[in-house]
Specification:
alpha/beta, D-Maltodextrin-Binding Protein, domain 2, 3 domains, Double Stranded RNA Binding Domain, globular, 5-stranded mixed β-sheet, Porphobilin_deaminase_N, about 300 residues, 10 helices, EC 2.5.1.61, Hydroxymethylbilane synthase
Amino acid sequence: MDKVIRIGTRESQLALWQANLVKDLLTANGHSATLVPIKSDGDIDLVTPLYEIGVQGIFTKSLDAAMLADRIDIAVHSYKDVPTQLPKGLMNAAVIERGNVKDLLVYKKDTDFLSDTTYAANIATSSIRRKAQWLRRFPQHQLHNLRGNVNTRLQKLAAENWDAAIFAAAGLERINVRPANSVILDWMLPAPAQGAIVVACRENDDHCREALLPLNHDETALCTGIERAFLRTLLGGCTTPISAYAYIDGNQLFFEGNLCSLNGDRSITVTRQVPAAEAEGIGKDAAQEVLDKGGDVIIEEIRNAQG
């Protein structure tokens, strides 16, 4: 009888959707699997801004601990939440084909505030990256902290005296809660690995590694790997406004990476275009260019401001 693979997941509707997707993929390949919901620290404290908590992997460490304790076999994460350095003994075994990478603005009345330079709109987001990019474009606006799962944040937006809030489009679309009063922010560069789902397991678990191998989407794994190399080289996390996006068109890989100051008054952007077969290493190379252009100064200022 085939071993039942225990899938660890957070308890939110989106996390369960992602975990069920992995379960269905495993089942389609002849494996038995069951979900094991686990509450993360990031789901318990819904008040403190993530950049103030300052803990790498706040949404993943509870699942990591459960894997290392052999309470679950694999864990399903939104890849953008996963630290670039995993705990010893764990590995990312499969990156699922990517969904929508874009950010989305959900507004309450209209979007006139986007063109009115005299109005100080109230915009909500928990992401320091989104705050920095937004303030760079709309320095007169007021930013407010917004924590919680997708449904909780939508409810908070409805209850508060805010004009709009920013979400990852993939999260709202996957569980079919994207409101009609929303627009894609084409100009906003996403977080590294945004829109992708990753499945982790123990390095010594050959059964799960082999079961997950067919689920890996090579193009998504390549592109998100480059984005995360950019993030890792800049030593960034949820406390640093770092953005990156790589995609393949034809046989070419296109990359754009960005580092912002906290208030958006300074921004360093780098781009690359290389044959996809030669793309390995460009994330680290692009990050080094950011540092050489003054990114090291911005990062040090951010650390001092948050220290």
